[in-house]
Please model this.
Amino acid sequence: MNIRTKILALLIVLSMFVGSTTACVSEHKQNNTTPFVTKQIQMNIEFRPNVTSLIDITLHENPKLKHVTKGKVGYALAGFAHNGASYEHLITQIFSENKDVSMIIVPEIPGSNMPKGMLYGDLVLNDYVNINKLVLDRLSEGELRHNFKIDFAVFHSQAGLVAMMLQEQVNLKKYGIKDVILIAPAPPQEVKWSFASNMNPYSFLQYLTIDNNGAYFNLPSRDWIGFFFTNPDGSISRRLPSMENVDKYNTKAPLSATLQLVGINILSMNPPTLELNNSIRPSVTKGIFRKNSPKLWIIDYGNDTIVSKNDVINTYNYLMDTKENINKVEIMRHRQHSGIIYVPNAVHDAHLVMNIEEINRII
Model:
């Protein structure tokens, strides 16, 4: 099997994630000043034997609090093709409305730096889980300060699935986390995901990059907007970040992790033959958030074309081992223990303004 055949197969495989949601973008909102203080730290993480990654971590501190060490601390992990900067808008909202939150920690996982000991394109979702566990371990062991703990954690899209895998392997209560907030999370293998089930695996070949770091998914910024900000009617949401911020938020994604995320299997290389195979997607145990776990909250975006309302409800029911109907779940945001927070007219991207009052009730 020659290298050209392998590259052709990889080009075809990775293209499936974009689907047919590209659209022309004409309007952008202007950038807002971020009212918080940022500090940067790095951790060198060995997440496989003899494989390391230098993880950049941003500490966002609330300048309204004189004693940062006394407030609540959050942890936020970005989703597919997003980096940590995509959370700045949400962090701005939280700090402006919530006087109790002193810091939000945003790691770049699997890393803005290339791993040593393996190709970036070969990273899988369990590598994301291992890196998160090791970062959380070091934070809880006093990397920042003595008796450090995290009060709440936010995970968007693909990161929502990583959070489920984390909870499966290490109860997030271990780190002091009381509330887990999943924003439009990708469902686990056991929950049918309409987006992944109906995608065309042979479209959009142009988004694969292959270089010395391996094969990875790389969306141009305008197509990134088309993918993450498309309404169900095919139009582009008018609630957009500036193009400058789009360039800032957009990042590459490893090929292997992407195939695992959406369930694409390579049957043969020559000729390239692909299949949708849900069984290769990550699996988690039913009811992992039901007992002795952090409270579970899921954000349901009303105009999301990637994670639908039914996907959210079925994921919630699976993780909580319950059977809530749609109407009942929609009003669960008024409960105290867990539930779904419905945000109408919002598309998939975490940049969008959410119901910050509900978020602040949680955290």
